[in-house]
Amino acid sequence: MHTDAISVERVTPDGASLDAINRVVEGAVMGWRLAERVKRLVLPSYLYSAAELTYLDVIVARETAGMVVGVATLESAAAIDCPHDRRGLLLHGLYIAPAYQRRGIGKRLLDEVFAVAHAARVDGVLVKAQHAAEPFFVARGFTVLVPTDPQRQYAHRLWRAVRRA
C-alpha cells in the first residue's frame, strides 16, 4: 500500500474510534520484541480509555476504506521533563498497525504532531520512548536528553524543537 492512500487527521474519538485506536495499540505492543508474558502484562497500561482521550490530542492515520492503521496522542509536557525550561507537548503514544509499519506512516503522523505543536506555539515535542524506539526518533531529528534528576525523570526522553517560521 502506498502512503498516499493513507489520510492523517486530528479526531475527537467516539466509542468506535476508541476501539479502532486500541486495536492499533494492541497490535503494535504485541509486535514488540519482548517475552509474550511481558507483553500481555503491560498491554492494559497502554490501551486508552474514553476518559483519557478527553484530554489528549488524537491524530489517526486511515487507509482509504477508513480503517485506522496508526495513531499518535499528545498532551502538555511537564516542565521538569522539558529541557531548559522550554514548553512542549508530550508525544504520549505513536503506534502503527503491524501490517502498515515501515511505510512512512509514523513519519506522516509525526509531521502532523509538529503541525499541532507549531499551532500550540510550544518550543518542542518531548517523547518518553521505549529504549528500542530511540533510533526511530533520533532518525527523525530528536535528541536524547540526559536526565538531570534520574529519580524524577524518565531515562529515555527525547526532544525535538519546533521550527518557527
Strand order of the largest sheet: 1-2-3-4-5-7-6
Classify the secondary structure makeup into a structural class. alpha+beta
CATH class designation: Alpha Beta
Strand tally:
7
Let me know the largest β-sheet. Answer: 7 strands, mixed
| CATH fourth-tier homologous superfamily | Gcn5-related N-acetyltransferase (GNAT)
Query: Approximately how much helix is present in the residues?
Result: 25-40%
List low-pLDDT spans: none
| Quaternary structure of the protein | single chain
Shape: globular
CATH domain topology: Aminopeptidase
Count of DSSP H/I helices: 5
CATH-derived architecture: 3-Layer(aba) Sandwich
Give helix and strand order, one letter per element, not per position: EHHHEEEHEHEE
Rg computed from alpha carbons, rounded to a whole number of angstroms: 16 Å
Average residue pLDDT:
91
* Domains, number: 1
Q: In what range is the share of β-strand residues?
A: 25-35%
Distance between the termini: 33 Å
How does this structure look, described?
The chain has 165 residues and is of the alpha+beta class. It has one domain: Aminopeptidase (3-Layer(aba) Sandwich), CATH 3.40.630. 31% of the residues lie in helices and 25% in strands. It is built from five helices and seven strands. The chain has a seven-stranded mixed β-sheet with strand order 1-2-3-4-5-7-6. Helix 4 links the parallel strand 4 and strand 5. Helix 1 runs antiparallel to helix 2. The longest helix is centred in the N-terminal third of the chain and has 16 residues. The protein is globular and about 45 Å long. The N and C termini lie far apart (33 Å). The model has no long low-confidence stretch (mean pLDDT 91).
